[in-house]
Amino acid sequence: MANHSLLPVHPLFKNLSGQRFGRLCVIEYAGRSGRQRISMWRCRCDCGTERDISATSLHSGTVSCGCLRLERTSEAKRTHGKTGTAEYRAWANMISRCENKNDLSFKDYGGRGIGVSRGWRCSFETFLQDMGNKPTAAHMIDRIDNDGNYEHGNCRWATRTEQNRNRRCNRLVTYKGATKCVSEWAGVVGLPRYTIEKRLDSGWSVERAMTTPKRAWNRNTRPGVAVVVREITNERAGHGDRNSMQDHRRAAGGVVASTRGALQGG
Q: Is residue 122 in some structural domain?
């Protein structure tokens, strides 16, 4: 047990005695070390080794005295011979972003509660057996359910395009019994993604947004301009307006352009 009389008296100091970090169990406070006076803690690893480890290291992902890394390296070399391959790097990086708080991607994975299944976490061979080899160098591991864990049945090898379609920020639309993101539907129905999104935002039904063709804009053939021009011309003529027909056409063109854009919805 820690000697509480030796613990620093400071409002921000946290007593880690008795806490567990992976294989490490904190035994007692071991004083400060170095010029920066970093707090050190005596820890006992499950393998029996005792070491003094800084509080910073414990909070940054240190989970053993070093034996875990040696075991993984030894097991990898002994059993599958895949160390250094693209599949092995994908497996190692997957674990890191879910468990290592020092990993730059941790906030988007482990920080959101996403983890790795026990079978995959403990065995690269199980991971490789479930996932198989990468189809191409462009494929990366992807979770089908973005809020689910890395586990068999929820992961696949996917290209960057397929991953982007599966991003949390993508808008999902159900049409004809199938649910896809807008960018994927755009490729199916032959419309620009922004056109579909604009139509849906304007209150169009999914059926109408998907089936209405996108009309080509032609400045020289604008239906309805002649009607508007005639109405404006007649109205102004009745009030003694002597502006030229060209002026009337310019005025009408602005009205029709804005009206036409709103009606077409893209």
A: yes
Among 185, 114, 189, 100, CA closest to 149? 114
31 vs 36: CA distance, rounded Å: 12
SS (H, E, C) 44-94: EECCCCEEEEEHHHHHCCCCCCCHHHHHHHHHHHHHCCCCCCHHHHHHHHH
Assess whether 76 and 157 both reside in one domain.
yes
Residue 187 predicted with pLDDT over 70: yes
Q: What is the pTM of this model?
A: 0.41
Does 220 score more than 80 pLDDT?
no
Q: Strand pairing of 140-143 and 155-158? A: antiparallel
- Looking at the chain, the whole-number percentage of residues with pLDDT higher than 90 is 39
Tens digit of each residue's pLDDT (9 = 90 or more) over 193-203: 889 888 988 89
| Spatial CA neighbour of 227 closest among 206, 248, 196, 210 | 248
CB atoms within 10 A of CB 131: 18
pLDDT, mean over the chain:
79
Which structural domain, as residue segments, surrounds residue 198? Answer: 172-211
DSSP 212: S
Give the number of domains in the chain: 4
| Cα gap 25→47, rounded to integer Å | 11
Q: Is 218 inside any structural domain?
A: no
